[in-house]
Amino acid sequence: MKRYALTLLCWLTWSAVQAQLILGGSVVSEQNLPLAGVKLTVQGTSTSTSTQSDGSFNLPTDQPLPLTLLVSRTGYAPERVRVRNSNFRAIEVRLKAEVVIPESTLSSASEPVDEQAISGVTVETIRAHAAANSPALSPADALQYTNGVDLLTSSFLFKSVNMRGFGSTTNGRVVQLIDGMDNRSPGLGFGFGNVAGLPDLDVETIEVRPGASSAQHGPDAILGLMQTTSKSPFDYQGLSVQARLGANNVGKPGFGPKMYSDYGFRYALVLNERFAIKVNFQRLTGTDFIADDYADRSTTARPGFFATDAGRSGVATGITFRPGIDPNTSFDYDGVNIYGDDVNNGGVFRYPATYANTTLQNQFVTRTGYRELDVLGNQGKVFNNRANASVHYRFGNSVEASLGWYFGNGNLIETSAFRNYIPDYRRHQFKAELKGDNFYIRAYTTQQQAEGWNIGQTARAINDSWKSLNQWATEFGLAYVENKVSIGDARFTANRGRYLPGSVDFNRVRNAFATTFNTDSIPGLPRARGLRFRDNSQLWHYEGMYTVAALSELVELTVGASFRRYVLASGGTLFARQANGSEYTIDETGGYVQAAKTLALGAVTIRPLLAVRYDKNQFVNGGFTPRASVAVQAGIHVFRASWQSAFRNPSPQQLFGLTPAGIAGDVGGLRAAYRAAGLDTNRAYRQSDAVAYQRNPSTATTPQSLTLSNAPLQTETVRSWEVGYKALINGKLAIDASLFSSRYTNLITPEVLYQPLSATAGATALLTPASYRTLLLNRNSPNDFFVRGASVSLDYNFARGYTLSGNFTHQVGLVTLRNAAGAVRNDLSGTPIVQRPTSDPAVTQLGRTYFNSPANRYTITLSNPYLTNRLGIALAYRWTDRMWYEQGVTQGDVWVPAWGSIDAQFSCKLPEFKSVLKLGGTNLFNTYYAQGYGLARVGAMYYVSLTFDELFK
């Protein structure tokens, strides 16, 4: 009996040893440099892991020896490594770099795939280890080093991703996905940046695809796609912790510097070979970048804004307006980040032509405004919480089910028509997914809570609550005329008793407007409405994809379909409502089919691909988006070419956007929206038609009011072709270049209108700024837009681990102006405007085109993550060309200057503690710049961080 017991004990002990077998080793390149992010999988199982920053790995398995490890990383030839008793703790793998032909595009409206799964299009990928080795503070910030990507920073946490023209602080033409889920606001139609992104420690890859992508990823990916993929708990296990401290706003007199902190953790646990869980959390607190441009506003709303050539019948040749900085010497000073003094938002008074003093006859005089920082009243403080949790279960080796929760919460400043402050944004996303090698089924919902208020309108309301504009202007005029004082002294006299920032009265009035919805009256303030808006809209999305395995020998055929529903919920503060008072819902459906085939013809491999999808929004006509592409590999050279189409459905705000009576803002393009705004009974006037009349009403032609068309809003469309080339030469020089051209039609652009506050006032209301409001009406532009450009990126690996990288992007926007009937328009000298630059003054004189993109940008990076076995460095220089910028109501129209930034980081690996210490900064020399007009001015960000990775694994 004892013998049997001893035998059983030995067997159990051996079984336990087998169950706890831990494989270990390292992966290096041909140059003997450690490779991070390499995936290792035990063949025949789902057990896998990834290498750490020093190339090392540990992989628990219950499989008996010998076994085979599958080793892979993008850009390197995969390897199969045999593991035996003699080497299971000292496995050494050397990967060889190679360029491979792209595989099939087996993706639907939001399927995250690797760049090697993209046929015939440009793809840029940021991996976790690459982001960690860059000077960027976060993986999302590493986008600024990516070829073809422009970031517009509205605030510390809110950065809009732009590609291939038509840049925007709220770009809804670039689809942003997180683990296959649309990251955009359900109602407003744009992404909230990193406020609701993944925690940094859970980001595995960020993939960027510039250009039309609707055929693979559904409507709205008209300019490009950004996919962020989280780390699998099966591949990245254990506890990771990160702590970062830093400072910004350095050199701000009387304000900076300000400290910020950023903490996070990630924990993933594999309970057995099939079941795994993970949880993540990150919290950031600090002080925002400050919008503190106090120069006089440059805007086409100012009469006499353009310099004109009398010999060409007044055609614009440039900007005659020269911004000043002193309200004491300027009648109509309008500070960029000072509000309540806005010339196009009720902050200016026009003295009549019969005024007693000739100096003030027909003169515009702005009242004194408040700085953005004063109106906010929070000293620029920002916070952000991000979290997610998920459970994963694997059925066999190829099917995985998962349930996930994603959360984002924080405060931010958003810039569209105005600067809007959202003090406590909250978003939950819930996802259920089942996926295998050739299919997936996914369902998710976005639940949002967003309330905020308009900074500029609040400043105006504070002024008006203290003293009406007419009363203020009367006192200013009396002081200036009777007392014969200077402009500054006249302002001082009219401002006596004004609510001072931070005072009890100032805070009381600001809070009253900021906390009362714009549909409600404010107690104690007669005829005053609040300025708070709400967007608690929801999104419900369902989709699936299937690759027909039975046809795999003949053709790779993939089909897919999707359905989504938007449930608007603003209580009438942002969106028009139905006649019965209920909120609108919006349904969208879509489906696609794709066929691809890899053909081996001797030493050449060719892969053609065809795809087409159809999508329909219930309020807009549907459309097909075909795509054709081909990739050809000959040795180390890969050539690609594609022709693609894409379309974009209007966002819910562009369909049903509403600004309550008397308030400036956006109006949707559907008849229900502009009826709710009164535009059918109280017609508005184009700003471009009104400016000349406002400047000199006695000689200019009286503008005609705008008759709105009953034609429905149309989807935006683009037709684009692209050719490209990539290669890896001698395992050292990587080249990726592309050339592209696109034509856009039916772009939805906001047209600036002036609507009299009284339906009977007519055009004469335009002569009194307080008698009309400024609206941005979303309409299909009749113009044809063209974007042409090229990009190239080069990476060269020197000896001893040094890499020199660089990328350059050139893009130019052209426009052919057309009238509502489709005929080509002429400039004011009678010359047709056909494919002229969007920044041409003769074009901008006739209205905005919103191209908002620099012609040139480049980045140069020198890095060595393996300077020694512990030390690493990275040094980068970013440069962006000047750009003609058109934005909103209270932003303006201006040439934003070119800017450059030097960034650097120094890292030290501490393998005994599984940690990395990092010291660095962006914009090291603290040269402040703004990436758009009226946006926060970005200075240096200095930081130190400590990351502990995969503890307790």
Task: Explain the overall architecture.
This protein is mainly beta and 953 residues long. Among the domains are: 76 residues, Immunoglobulin-like (Sandwich), CATH 2.60.40.1120; 151 residues, no CATH class. The protein has twelve helices and 52 strands. The protein has a 22-stranded antiparallel β-barrel. Strand 34 and strand 35 form a beta hairpin. Helix 5 crosses helix 8 and helix 6 crosses helix 7. The longest helix has 18 residues. The protein is globular. About 4% of the residues have low confidence.
Shape: globular
Main sheet properties: 22 strands, antiparallel, barrel
Name the helicity range. 10-25%
Give the distance, in angstroms, between the N- and C-terminal Cα atoms: 40 Å
Low-confidence stretches: 4-19, 100-119
What value does the average pLDDT take?
88
What proportion of the residues form beta strands (DSSP E)? 35-45%
Structural class: mainly beta
Based on CA atoms alone, the radius of gyration comes out at 30 Å
- Quaternary state of this entry equals single chain
Number of helices: 12
Task: Let me know the number of strands.
Answer: 52
Membrane topology: Multi-pass membrane protein
InterPro entries: Beta-barrel_TonB_sf, CarboxyPept-like_regulatory, Plug_dom, Plug_dom_sf, TonB-dep_rcpt-like
Subcellular location: Cell outer membrane
Signal peptide: 1-19
